[in-house]
Predict the 3D structure of the following.
Amino acid sequence: MKQPAKKTATDRNFVVALSRGLDVLRAFRPNDGLLGNQELAARTGLPRPTISRLTYTLTKLGYLTPVPRFEKYQLAPAAMALGYSALANLGIRHVSDPYRDKLMRETGGAVAIGARDRLSMIYFGQSRSDLTVGVLLDVGSRIPIATTAMGRAYLWALPEDERTALLREIRENSGSRWPKVREGIERAGEMIAQHGFAISAGEWHSDIHAAGVALQLNDGTGPYAFNCGAPAFKFSEKLLIDDIGPRLVAMVNNIEKAMTGRPSVGSVAAQDSSRSNHQNNNNTKKHKSGGKLARLVEGTG
């Protein structure tokens, strides 16, 4: 699990102990069941003595339940209450429910909404049925930003300074895979500028294809991102571009209209289409040189 950026060490307002305690809670994933101190230390990167103190404290506060027989812990109701409170207060989740359900029925794909959690997108709304075979993600599931349609749509919806900072984190985390990851992100930016949506065709999981669209509300919340995905045999890349993506853009436009009373102009990134289209006019040059994206991330542009 990636720790907060090093600069937080010099931030006088940053409470390290609180951050570490939250890292322990974050380490629990859907379907995990019980976790012991050793597993928590491995997931958080924190020393075992520190983990022992944190789990003791979180148990005393009611956020963890100890299971002495196995010397492990599970999330307690107090921790779950935080999650339910967050979900209950996400208006966009409830407003988008019927729109997601409708698109699910029309396409046979799973339709979700997510928000950023470090280098991942976390699902907080999911529409799927028995027909959406092969897509087992649910509320609370995390998917990577760098290689998924939802994540890429979110990435290109960010202001340039925030996008650059996130790209640097992705680069550090990608290691030798960075050139391929960067190429996929660049392609997504071009597609969003041209069509209003991003796609990922087997780039996260070889058998999962999906389209993604971001949404920034005028109350300053977000960006959020939606996706519509299915097994590769059901959603070909051509179908994503010709049908699924445009349907998803239309759905997000309708959700924004329902939330704000005004229609969207496409996707969040499409609102910056003049800049993106200018970049598209230089696609050949960009890909030969690694492009503006690479220069920004490497701190040379």
Q: What stands out?
A: The CA atoms of residues 94 and 130 lie 22 Å apart. Confidence is low (pLDDT under 50) at residues 1-5, 265-290.
